[in-house]
């Protein structure tokens, strides 16, 4: 029996064990010594606070005198394990760009759409291709539906629905010249905005158009959803972000975010922060729950065309052909980017992969998967979004989602208001009473009886008609007053426990 050192909770322990015994693999002492950073800085000998803060700041960085921004993707790939290194790859598709891409909710599958008609869906982890088609016309945006076997493509004139084999399932001609797509998973609504300034919500479970409104704000090219309340946020050239629901023809709220035209906006997965960018190189972070802010303001080198939050609130900013990732930039001000990567061509769009430390970037000539350590949520709920689900689990999940489908009437700016009790205020009661008292009397159509010739004239007929109308009006006013008295009596305050001690009025 050989002896080996086992490290457990930072302590060494000598024990006799077999080499194939289950447990933690022993770490060689030479490797620990090689990669150990030491005990850190001793602050006792430092007299001034300024020098203490400088040294503390250096201690927080990756290494003495280094920043994480200078690390390239090649260095990150060489430092991680083989499984994580395979998640960083490039796709060179030079003839059909610029591209747009989307991940599924569980982060397992990816959809690519090129401006010149190239559409591809595949499992990006195993690199297994589902389908690859050429639609022979321009593609403006792509979006997955509730499962990975169906996706929507916004083409030149209409929206087309395809399955994962590339077979066309539907052609939706009610949605014309769409520029951006968003899917609301809990409502089964495919939301879109168009060149004509229209916002539309299509229920994919029954195939009906729920609502379609003209925003009267011109061409719409920026669309994102708030995952907390399923409200659509649209960016405009006047620096305004408007929030829309399928239940209202007017926006639920408007925020003046910039004094210049907006170029990009995005909301994080929890619905807490909204990032907006404008053409004057400004980047602002807003508290979207209170519609307040800005919480943070940044001045970029160039205007940002793409924004994307990760599950751990990292913010990816696409500026031309450069991507910068900021960490902890919402609650506090970030002094420098966490990572930076430069591409050869311009960026189409970018998205963080759910439950993975991966940032997907679609460019003019293909797609690149970047490793961003610490960006993804490590723990997933298998009943909510399972990256390893089987076919039977997918079928059961689809049926359960349809049974728990939320109606579009419940989409509001504050979803917690649905659980509140609807108690009428004093103002509502007074207005209801006034409306009741000022209701016009119904019109009386008086038709006189046909009499013999010479028995009744037109003057007498007019008098009789006026008498009948006045009598009906008096009866209506009397009944209205009685009804108002009954309503007022019902609206009186109910008696409490101690009201029995109050003397009754005669």
UniProtKB/TrEMBL annotation:
Transmembrane segments: none annotated. It holds the Pfam family BING4CT. PROSITE patterns: WD_REPEATS_1, WD_REPEATS_2, WD_REPEATS_REGION. The keyword Cell membrane does not apply. Keywords: Nucleus, Repeat, rRNA processing, WD repeat. GO terms for biological process: maturation of SSU-rRNA from tricistronic rRNA transcript (SSU-rRNA, 5.8S rRNA, LSU-rRNA). The keyword Repeat applies. Residues 1-29, 52-71 are annotated as: Disordered. One of its GO terms (cellular component) is 90S preribosome. SMART domains: BING4CT, WD40. It is found in: Nucleus, Nucleolus. PANTHER family: WD REPEAT-CONTAINING PROTEIN 46, WD-REPEAT PROTEIN BING4. This is WD repeat-containing protein 46. It comes from Asbolus verrucosus (Desert ironclad beetle).
């Amino acid at each position: 029996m050989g002896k080996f050192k086992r490290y457990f909770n930072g302590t060494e322990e000598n024990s006799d064990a077999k080499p194939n015994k289950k447990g933690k693999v022993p770490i060689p002492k030479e490797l620990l010594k090689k990669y150990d950073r030491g005990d850190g800085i001793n602050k006792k000998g430092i007299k001034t606070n300024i020098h203490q803060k400088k040294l503390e700041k250096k201690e927080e960085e990756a290494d003495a005198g280094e920043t994480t921004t200078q690390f390239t993707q090649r260095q990150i790939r060489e430092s991680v394990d083989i499984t994580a290194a395979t998640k960083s790859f490039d796709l060179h598709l030079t003839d059909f760009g610029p591209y747009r891409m989307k991940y599924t909710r569980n982060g397992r599958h990816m959809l690519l759409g090129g401006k010149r008609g190239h559409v591809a869906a595949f499992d990006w982890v195993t690199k297994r291709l589902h389908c690859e088609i050429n639609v022979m016309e321009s593609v403006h945006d792509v979006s997955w539906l509730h499962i990975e076997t169906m996706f929507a493509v916004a083409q030149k004139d209409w929206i087309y629905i395809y399955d994962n084999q590339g077979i066309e399932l539907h052609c939706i001609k009610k949605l014309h010249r769409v520029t951006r797509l968003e899917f609301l998973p809990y409502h089964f609504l495919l939301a879109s905005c168009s060149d004509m300034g229209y916002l539309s919500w299509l229920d994919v479970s029954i195939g009906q158009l729920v609502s379609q409104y003209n925003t009267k704000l011109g061409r719409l090219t920026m669309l994102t959803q708030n995952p907390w309340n399923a409200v659509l946020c649209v960016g405009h050239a006047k620096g305004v972000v408007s929030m829309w629901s399928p239940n209202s023809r007017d926006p639920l709220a408007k925020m003046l975010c910039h004094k210049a035209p907006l170029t990009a906006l995005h909301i994080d997965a929890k619905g807490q922060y909204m990032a907006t960018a404008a053409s004057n190189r400004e980047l602002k972070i807003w508290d979207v729950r209170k519609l307040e802010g800005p919480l943070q303001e940044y001045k970029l080198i160039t205007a940002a065309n793409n924004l994307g939050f990760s599950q751990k609130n990292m913010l990816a900013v696409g500026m031309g052909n450069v991507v910068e990732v900021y960490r902890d930039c919402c609650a506090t001000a970030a002094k420098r980017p966490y990572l930076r990567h430069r591409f050869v061509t311009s960026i189409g769009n970018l998205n963080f992969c759910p439950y993975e430390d991966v940032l997907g970037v679609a460019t003019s000539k293909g797609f690149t998967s970047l490793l961003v350590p610490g960006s993804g949520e490590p723990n997933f709920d298998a009943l909510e979004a399972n990256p390893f689900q089987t076919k039977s689990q997918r079928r059961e999940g689809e049926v359960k989602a349809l049974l728990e489908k939320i109606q579009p009437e419940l989409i509001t700016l504050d979803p917690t208001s649905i659980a509140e009790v609807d108690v009428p205020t004093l103002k509502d009661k007074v207005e209801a009473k006034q409306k009741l008292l000022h209701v016009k009397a119904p019109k009386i159509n008086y038709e006189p009886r046909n009499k013999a010739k010479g028995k009744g004239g037109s003057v007498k007929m007019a008098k009789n008609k006026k008498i009948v109308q006045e009598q009906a009006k008096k009866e209506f006013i009397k009944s209205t007053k009685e009804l108002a008295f009954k309503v007022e009596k019902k609206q009186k305050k109910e008696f409490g426990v101690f009201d029995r001690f109050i003397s009754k009025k005669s």
